[in-house]
Design brief:
heterodimer, A: Alpha-Beta Plaits, 4-stranded mixed β-sheet, 3-stranded mixed β-sheet, 10 strands, B: alpha+beta, Cytochrome-c3 Hydrogenase, chain B, 3-stranded antiparallel β-sheet, binds iron/sulfur cluster
Chain lengths: ~280, ~600
Amino acid sequence: MFGTGLLKGLGVTLKHALDTFDDDRESVPDRYRGSLDLGNNRRVIKQPIDQEGLLTIQYPEEKRLLPERFRYIPMLIWDSEKDEDRCTACGICAKVCPPQCIWIVRDSDEDGKPLTRASEFYIDAAVCMSCSFCVEFCPFDAIKMNHDYELAVYDRYPQLVYDMAELTVPLEYYAALWPTQFEEEETRRREEEEKKRRQEEEKAARLAAKQAEAAEKPADAPAAPKRSAAELQQLARERAAQRQAQAADGGSSEDDAAAAKKTRMEELKRKAQERARQRKLESGE
Amino acid sequence: MSQATVVAEAPADELDLGPELADAVEGAWAEDTEKTYVIAPDRILDVLRHLRDVQGYDFLSNLTCVDYKGYGGKLRADVDARLEIVYNLYNTRRGGGSIGLHVRVPEDETVPSATSLYAGANLQEREVYDLFGVKFEGHPNLRRILLWDGFNGHPMRKDWQEAYFEEDVKPFRSRHPKGEYAFHEDKIPWAKNTTYPAGWDPDSWQEPVAYVPVSQAPHHENEPHLDTESIVVNLGPHHPSTHGVFRMLTRVEGETILALEPEMGYLHRNHEKIGERNTWLMNMPFTDRLDYLNSMSNNWSYALAVEKLAGIEVPERAEYLRVIMAEFTRIVNHTWSIGFILNDLGALQTPALYAIEEREMILDLFEAVSGARMMCNYMRFGGVVRDLPEGWHEQAAYLANERLPRALDELDTLLTENEILKARGRGVGYLPVEDLIALSVSGPMIRAGGLAYDIRKAEPYGIYDRFDFDVPTLPNSDIYDRYYIRLLEAMESVRILQQALRDIPEGETLGGRGGYTLRAPEGEVYSRIEAPKGELGFYLASDGKVAPWRYHVRSPSYINLNALGPMSIGYKVADAIVILGAIDIVLGEVDR
Ligand code: SF4
Ligand code: SF4
């Protein structure tokens, strides 16, 4: 009969409308199932795969729960345990980057000898295509994908050209964003380290002997010699200890940049903790 | 099902043209990778005619050009001609592989146009003219197509350099180890960078509209007592029904379309030039941006082509993962396109929203596995980049076994019997399947015309020969069938998904040889897959270096537009909107 097709179709529409209506009346509607209430109407929504009805996420109050592998803009990892940047300025990421939006200046000592660290590191976030190749091919796990997607600014240049300070995040932040991958990497690293431990110990012993020698010299003597990577690490460790001591003294002799970095790192660590809590809550449910 | 599915028989790899044409073959090319034949320029039409009429190669899949200026490979040391036109032909009745032909053209010489034999050469020859400057003698409408008339030069020539040009091939030396950031826009202000072709004045230029060919349509004579006059009307480029920035230049009389020309290129970014600056692997994320609704199948098609060229093996589990992703993306594409066909008919939003409800779930799965909903960048040469995360398989199985079949049935109930859809769709946009094949149209459109031609059966790639599925066909070749065929195909995809998710083995997901340092051996390859929108092919030529010498995308959206004009003639303006919708184009792929 003419019109039955239309009527059947209207039946489907009615079913959808009722589904949505019905769902909205429940004490915990489908769209909030498995989501996290952050208070103040703010929520992290996890869309259930069996959700019925058509529902809208009320961004920006409500946001989607991002999967661990979500890719946005890369970030550089600052190993907060060792107090050093993981990046060695090897340049592989800059080579594989398809739109060539990574710029790296390799640091060098006074004699112009290249060091295994970057003095400048830029990523043009307006050009980055979030492909994650830099992450895939970095041999030092020094660059990872950030989940932070709210990057809107007024000007492309220089705001969207991220420098090293803007790119760097503490290890904890990465661990909270990418828990599974982080765990895998750490396991792998522990195994490798276990293998190398004996060699390391020998090295450390040699280093200690050198230090003892250096300590006997006047304080201003070892101004800026050619440094090996191991020495640099040692230096970094010493600096960290100094900073800690200063902080304990209540001294404010750190320069502004260092202070800014520290605040930023603290802030990011706090964010990471929040994120880890969210994930725990979610997996607990 | 009006016809048996085209299933591949053993392809003929030797070209046998018979005694009369034996002298037309000048030699063979790239015998180590994929053998093609070099044909004398003045005999190419004879050879094409013979292949089409005698041997049944009725489908001109790919027509492109390669500029060999400065070619670094060894194979071509004794050849002078700078440009080569490449043809890839298929037999849609027998299935199987392609016959590849090359025609060598010295600079500034013309080539006979293939349009008289294969109407589908129309847009492809215009593209070659636009990007390489090769003139085709006998082409009815040889104008620029992706670029505008005021563009200076032919950008795919090897000696043409873009603004911000740094080096021929990435990686650029300026990035490391002394990579001080330089803001490009400061370096080359556009004002000083614009040049026009000689003798061309931007101020006096007006877009010619006279080329809208009236002659192709019979004069509208339904209302002989009305003294009407035909006018030229632009549909688009800024129009919601044109699915992006796309323009239909029409000549109408009353509401009836007398002639229609697609005008495109608004989203052109010279994907192929970028592709030749990139190394092999770098192109992978760029393919996501072609048909941005189906990045998974774009990835796959490109990966397949490179694997074929470089002889890279793919582990078993990765093959299954590729099928799973490709079929999910087909469902996404087809439900989306059904929604938009209905939108174009005036059923605003409701069917579209119902159709893309499950799309959300599938995109969430893509995001969980690859990190992005649409720009997946998931495949690599020799497999896929990551294995499935925890819980993914269960969710996918739930979708494939329960939710998707239910959703597709619901769409079926909602739409298929709908009287308005039938009234608007039946008999509209008709073109016989022979014409569609001649126009190089592929994908759901030819299956809606009754030909069961699907590359997954006709020239199986990946592991498609292991699955049990049908190639649905419908007989009428109109809008309604083009809607319904997509629904049927999505249902077949669900069947494949169920089997693939059931059978997927454990194991490796990425073989070892396809990293960023890949150098493909010298030669060329043309490889294609059945993408949701039709035949998606990649033509790659390598000189043995880190980057492709030639990187060409045979995109279904673009070439299917060949049929837009012929299909629209005689119908109303409102029908042209949905005729376009039923081709299912994505401008990222049309304009490249
Ligand atoms: S981020 Fe990794 S790949 Fe890039 S320069 Fe640093 S260490 Fe090398
Ligand atoms: S994500 Fe891709 S585009 Fe972005 S910086 Fe890394 S390699 Fe470059």
